Amino acid sequence: MPHGSLLLDRIQNEPDVKASLLQVKHERLEEYNPDVYISLRARANKGEAETHDLRSRVLDFLNSDKKVFLILGDSGAGKSTFNKALEIYLWQQYNKGDRKIPLFIHLPSIKDLERDLVVERLRQANFTESQIWELKQNHEFILICDGYDECQQTRNL
């Protein structure tokens, strides 16, 4: 029965998923500088004249049953900065009871986009395979994918 004992030791000595999540959250919050962010206004469709607060629109979307929200804009328009600010806001909401884990994924940093983006991003954040399995079994994720235009993808992710 030594094999079972080794497995038990490994599980007991592995960092707690909750503690690892809090560490990732802390690191992401530390990296963010709110002084450089200006709230964006956007149009729902290219031809529309009326603009809306982008964060409000995204939060409405996240509270709906819809699955994909695409933000298009010229280079330098603030899409990446918005995505990072959104991630920070969602991490702050995570503390307040929202159990969806925000994952900012800079797509060009993922070696193989055909693999599981959640797994790849969690590996980048130094989660173990068993922690990743536990997170995927027990949590939902909000994927904030950035840099799609830099990947030169000719197909959908």
Automatic annotation (TrEMBL):
Pfam families attached to this UniProt entry: NACHT (PF05729)
Gene3D superfamilies to which the protein is assigned, alphabetical: P-loop containing nucleotide triphosphate hydrolases
Ranges where the NACHT domain occurs: 68-154
Protein name according to UniProt: WD_REPEATS_REGION domain-containing protein
